[in-house]
Amino acid sequence: MSTMQRRDPRTMSIASDAQQMIEVARSEGIETVWDRLEAQQPQCGFCVLGVSCRNCAMGPCRVDPFGAGPQKGVCGAGADVIVARNLGRTIAAGSSSHSDHGRDILEVFAATAHGETTGYRIQDVGKLTRLAAELGIPTEDRTTTQVAVDLADRLMDDFGTRRASLSFVERSPKPRQELWDRLGVTPRGIDRENVEMLHRTHMGVDNDPVNILLHGLRTSLADGWGGSMIATELSDIMFGTPSPVMSTVNLGTLKPGWVNIALHGHNPMLSDVIVQAAEDPALVDRARELGAEGINLVGLCCTGNELLMRRGVPMAGNHLMQELAIMTGALEAMVVDYQCIMPSVTDVARCYHTVVISTADKARFPGAVHVSFDPGRGLEIGRDIVSRGVEAFANRNPDRVRIPDEPVEIMAGFSVEAILGALGGTPAPLVEAIADGRIRGAVGVVGCNNPKITQDYGHVTLTRRLIENDILVLVTGCAAVANGKAGQMVPAAASLAGPGLRATCEALGIPPVLHMGSCVDNTRILVLAAALADHLGVDMSQLPLAGAAPEWYSEKAVAIGAYVVASGITTVLGVDPPILGSAAVTGLLTSGLDDVVGAKFAVEADPEKAAVLIRRHIEGKRAALGLPA
Ligand code: CUV
Ligand code: SF4
């Protein structure tokens, strides 16, 4: 830890709440993610390049990237196969994570349709009806329940292998569907593609790196146009389709005299009933009895994004804030579901009065209290969890409470429905603004924090440079939280944008950086891109669009990047993926793919340079469409 003690917190995060809490961690001697990254140095050079394999017990094997040592694993696999297999498995892990989340939502939706849950209902009947009609499910003269049961059945099928393609693939522009068919990458079943990837990457199955990578695209498409999209759409139906809402963000959302409960992870199905439970007068009374002013719920990571988008619940922070949030000494409970929850949170919580409450049977945390989620008793479980948070308030040590900073305002809630609604129900005004050059294009800035990058610097800098140059920015996940903390997500932030984007935002009263939700909600960006392409009668790859994941860390982010590129949108990564040990794989992803799917990956760690690269890409797409320079 010694070198960490000397590192300037301003090189670790640009967010002042994080910088202050890093000092607190040091003074208290509590280890953080940054300390552990330091302790791992130097990280394995073989793994960094992707040329290590432990897929079988003849290994583990490594290929010498300098050519002197072995060039093949024991089975005979060279660097290209090893790198491609590793990447394929990473995509499958990310895609499986999103899709399993989607299935969990679908199961609760199905149980709700059958009247077997408490605390759940169909909130957006209009969206249910639209979705059913889209999928050819009869809606006339039928009850909401009947339609919901059929919709659930239909989407359950998407997880298996009963049809030639997934339900939502038809939402993509026709030329894109035809391209996927020609390439043989149209996803068939959500589970199937993931399982097939595990099969292909077993020793001695798919030994052609290009063939593996094509299936990698298919696997990712089963996430983007499958599992994740199901998660988004059904969450909207059950919890409400987001519409613009004002809230606040950063650790200042924790309130000194209140019971503070943070909801962390990714799945809204339990957190949504917890929000209902926190309004229970009996629990609020109990909090007051213990001397608190009330119950304050805040979000972390993507569960937080789900709640912020739909209910305006304040957002305590993104990925790298999870340990620091506990160190405020003001957090009674951290309720976790799954994904991106560091195992270290229970270690940090042990130093405070914070109770960590795990809720998913598939995601257990030694040291946490486990309250098993059961949608049949949703509300009751929600109350139990909130009550544990309330009771923990009695153990709070007021002398250890250090809440840094005042919260910053943020506007969220930009579902596709909300964006089209603001535009008068059609993408036409946005397409016109892009066509005449007031808005040059749009970029999805998405993904995580990674301690290898100064926290939020990549997200905030890239976004700032893009909006300054009249490029509309759509954000999800931790990128959204980063931009929110930096004050770039309120309508007044239009003044940071170039003249064309600024005028458009001011006319509509919206920020130049639109919060579109959690990581599964990147599918909203796909749906919007498809709507723009259809309106212009072109493919998505022809639009002046790009994706960026400046601070990505997770396998899910790799799956997202892959489906975005496979959908025709070039994507810039801020952290090297472990592929550089294979010239063939690197060449395909960063150049060859352009000829195959009309998009590719680029890697650029410096967000200033990434902004230039993206602007050039967007101007190139505009020129090809004959739009004014
Ligand atoms: Ni899903 S995947 S760190 S919380 S965005 Fe945040 Fe978002 Fe990455 Fe995780
Ligand atoms: Fe080594 Fe081949 Fe086994 Fe991988 S699959 S561990 S390269 S023998």
Word description of this protein:
A six-stranded parallel sheet has the order 6-5-4-7-8-9. It has 25 helices and 16 strands. It is globular and about 65 Å long. Helix 5 (79-113) runs parallel beside helix 10 (209-239) and helix 11 packs across helix 16 (378-392). The mean pLDDT is 97. The N and C termini lie far apart (52 Å). The protein has 629 residues and is an alpha/beta fold. The longest helix has 35 residues, at 79-113. The chain folds into three domains: 80-239, Substrate Binding Domain Of Dnak, Chain:A, Domain 2, CATH 1.20.1270.30; 246-400, Rossmann fold (3-Layer(aba) Sandwich); 413-624, Rossmann fold (3-Layer(aba) Sandwich), CATH 3.40.50. Bound molecules: Fe(4)-Ni(1)-S(4) cluster, oxidized (CUV) and iron/sulfur cluster (SF4). The site of iron/sulfur cluster has 14 residues, from loops.
